């Protein structure tokens, strides 16, 4: 029997290894930018064409490479970071495996121009499909200039499965943001098809977060800082009012490296227990400083999953730090006794006796005694008048109270008797009565009259706690969530209007400026035709700023800026470019914004309209995002609960 196991050729082995590290254009940018950071660069420029399909260029002003280093950098497992196995547990740099450059070169055409600091001549190296096609001296600036073209040109299957340009560009922005948020002291620039998406100056951490995600986030950030013998944590968390159902910006970084850690995310959210609605999330940007010996970053090819030696202890520290930040900067008024203006609080002295406070009152005062004539018409305050009037107001209602005031010197009880006996006066007749009319004729019993009124006046729907509409159906009692029902109604309405292109635009008197993040700017280009079909009219003011000149009819009272931000974030989160999916997301966002809120009191006609409109919808049971709208409490269950 012949042998069947054999060694793979280097070209095949390199392509397999590249598949673990280089999954899409964003992976190339991540590896090259991290190498530039490790090289000590202070300015890093990234330019992509066709979302990285055609070319990716990364230029830095780092220390550069010599001719020999430039050649060795493209060999597998060639690295300047590791010398012995123990170095794996004492890592202080981003890249260390020596797989990034050979993996990129195995599936693309790469050109490198690099020059070390202090050298006069640099090196120009060309590689295609993992093979060196040329190397020669060249004149170039200090640092490195990587040009990666035709990604996956020799792996057609991988190239075919790349997403659309908008999706891949969003992935590039995500990878880029994870790096720029760690190094605010480095200048970063990102261009796409000669359009500048990001231009980030060197600044502080908070300003870098604001520069990336917009000024809207600045007012919601609370600083977090704690130092322990186990680890240090610093950064920012959002205020409770910044909570969102989805698309909250949540970032963990460990020793300058981005990390995904659901367990630690629960520690942050646990600190907001009962402060935000269930299911919502707050943004956070938290940075861990911990000994490299206490973590293992070498458990995933992309190094985004990190194992902690003392995970539970770090969880407790993180949770306490976030709770402290939220507690200190909460909106509740607190007393600070550490300030200079300390309150003057007397200290009890046992040698200096304290006298019992005296209460001045009239033991002969009788609130049921009529006020003296001399005080009835005077404007001075008299306790007997206040007591008498207060008593009559509580006993007789507003009519009796007003009548007793108008009666002047007449006894309050006399006024009351006169009112109850049907006495009429001009002053009394002028006061509108709040007593119910005589609904029951004298010849009918009270029970008969009540039954008749209930039959004539009883509404067909009832509202419970400003949230639920309750109505009787054949099988029992139906309970409808008014907000969710209205979302379903409006969603299908907007959906049909979008499909028919019949949304009407309403010009705004004072156009507002819409500030977008780089990711929202990319998404806007994707959905601009749909927004225009909805009735939005946006005009570019340069950069990532737009003027909102018109909006769809029926959105009065809605914050259009927040609505557009939510729309763009929602479309970005779906990751689906199908036109129908985009329209559905936009229609859902508008429906959520325009739906009647919880707590709004509805008239019977309004409840009737909601219920009838709901049952004309294609799906009466669930909202477009899967929340239940109604339930029915069956008659048998009601009888069982009542023991019938």
TrEMBL record:
Pfam families reported in the protein's UniProt record: DNA_mis_repair (PF01119), HATPase_c_3 (PF13589), MutL_C (PF08676)
Segments crossing the lipid bilayer: none
SUPFAM superfamilies according to UniProt: ATPase domain of HSP90 chaperone/DNA topoisomerase II/histidine kinase (SSF55874), DNA mismatch repair protein MutL (SSF118116), Ribosomal protein S5 domain 2-like (SSF54211)
Entry keyword annotation includes Glycoprotein: no
Keyword match Chloroplast: no
One GO term describing the cellular component: mismatch repair complex
GO molecular function annotation: ATP binding; ATP hydrolysis activity; ATP-dependent DNA damage sensor activity; endonuclease activity; mismatched DNA binding
Keyword field: DNA damage, DNA repair, Endonuclease, Hydrolase, Nuclease
Gene Ontology BP annotations: mismatch repair
Function, in words: This protein is involved in the repair of mismatches in DNA. It is required for dam-dependent methyl-directed DNA mismatch repair. May act as a 'molecular matchmaker', a protein that promotes the formation of a stable complex between two or more DNA-binding proteins in an ATP-dependent manner without itself being part of a final effector complex.
Family: Belongs to the DNA mismatch repair MutL/HexB family.
HAMAP family, A to Z: DNA_mis_repair (MF_00149)
This protein's name: DNA mismatch repair protein MutL
Gene: mutL
């Amino acid at each position: 029997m012949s042998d069947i196991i054999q060694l793979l050729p280097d070209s095949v082995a390199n392509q397999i290894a590249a598949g673990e590290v280089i999954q899409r254009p964003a992976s190339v940018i991540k590896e090259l930018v991290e190498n530039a950071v490790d090289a000590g660069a202070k300015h890093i420029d990234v330019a992509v064409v066709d979302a990285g399909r055609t070319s990716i260029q990364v230029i830095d002003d780092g220390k550069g490479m010599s001719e020999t280093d430039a050649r060795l950098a493209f060999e597998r497992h060639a690295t300047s970071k590791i010398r012995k196995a123990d170095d794996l547990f004492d890592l202080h740099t981003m890249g260390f495996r020596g797989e990034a450059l050979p993996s990129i070169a195995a599936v693309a055409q790469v050109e490198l121009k690099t020059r070390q600091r202090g050298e006069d001549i640099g090196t120009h190296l060309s590689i295609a499909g993992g093979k060196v096609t040329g190397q020669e001296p060249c004149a170039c600036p200090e640092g490195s200039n990587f040009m990666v073209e035709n990604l996956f040109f020799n792996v057609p299957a991988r190239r075919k499965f790349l997403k659309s340009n908008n999706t891949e560009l969003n992935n590039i922005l995500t990878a880029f943001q994870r790096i720029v948020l760690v190094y605010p002291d480095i200048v970063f620039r990102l261009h796409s098809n000669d359009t500048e998406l990001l231009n980030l100056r060197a600044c502080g951490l908070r300003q870098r977060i604001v520069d990336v995600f917009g000024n809207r986030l600045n007012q919601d950030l609370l600083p977090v800082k704690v130092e322990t013998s186990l680890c240090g944590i610093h950064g920012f968390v959002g205020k409770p009012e910044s909570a969102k159902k989805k698309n909250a910006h949540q970032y963990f970084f460990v020793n300058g490296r981005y990390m995904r850690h659901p367990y630690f995310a629960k520690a942050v959210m646990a600190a907001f227990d009962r402060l935000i609605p269930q299911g919502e999330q707050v943004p956070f940007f938290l940075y861990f400083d911990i000994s490299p010996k206490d973590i293992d970053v070498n458990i995933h090819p992309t190094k985004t999953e990190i194992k902690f030696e003392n995970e539970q202890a770090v969880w407790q520290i993180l949770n306490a730090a976030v709770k402290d930040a939220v507690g200190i900067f909460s909106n509740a008024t607190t007393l600070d006794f550490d300030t200079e203006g300390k309150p003057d609080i007397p200290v009890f002295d046992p040698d200096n006796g304290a006298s019992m406070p005296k209460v001045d009152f009239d033991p002969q005062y009788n609130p049921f005694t009529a006020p003296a004539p001399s005080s009835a018409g005077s404007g001075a305050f008299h306790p007997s008048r206040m007591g008498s009037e207060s008593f009559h107001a509580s006993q007789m209602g507003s009519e009796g109270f007003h009548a007793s005031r108008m009666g002047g010197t007449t006894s309050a009880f006399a006024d009351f008797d006169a009112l109850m006996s049907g006495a009429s006066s001009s002053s009394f007749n002028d006061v509108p009565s709040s007593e119910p009319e005589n609904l029951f004729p004298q010849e009918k019993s009270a029970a008969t009259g009540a039954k008749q009124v209930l039959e004539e006046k009883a509404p067909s729907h009832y509202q419970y706690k400003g949230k639920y509409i309750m109505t009787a159906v054949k099988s029992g009692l139906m309970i409808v969530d008014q907000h969710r029902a209205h979302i379903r109604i409006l969603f299908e309405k907007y959906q049909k209007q979008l499909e028919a292109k019949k949304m009407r635009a309403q010009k705004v008197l004072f156009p507002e400026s819409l500030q977008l993040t780089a990711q929202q700017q990319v998404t806007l280009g994707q959905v601009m035709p749909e927004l225009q079909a909805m009735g939005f009219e946006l005009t570019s003011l340069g950069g990532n700023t737009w003027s909102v000149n018109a909006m769809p009819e029926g959105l009065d009272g809605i914050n259009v800026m927040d609505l557009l931000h939510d729309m763009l974030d929602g479309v970005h989160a779906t990751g689906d470019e199908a036109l129908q999916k985009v329209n559905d997301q936009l229609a859902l966002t508008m429906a959520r914004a325009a739906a009647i809120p919880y707590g709004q009191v509805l008239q019977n006609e309004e409840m009737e309209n909601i219920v009838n409109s709901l049952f004309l919808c294609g799906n009466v049971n669930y909202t477009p995002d899967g929340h239940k709208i109604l339930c029915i409490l069956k008659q048998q269950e009601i009888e069982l609960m009542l023991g019938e």
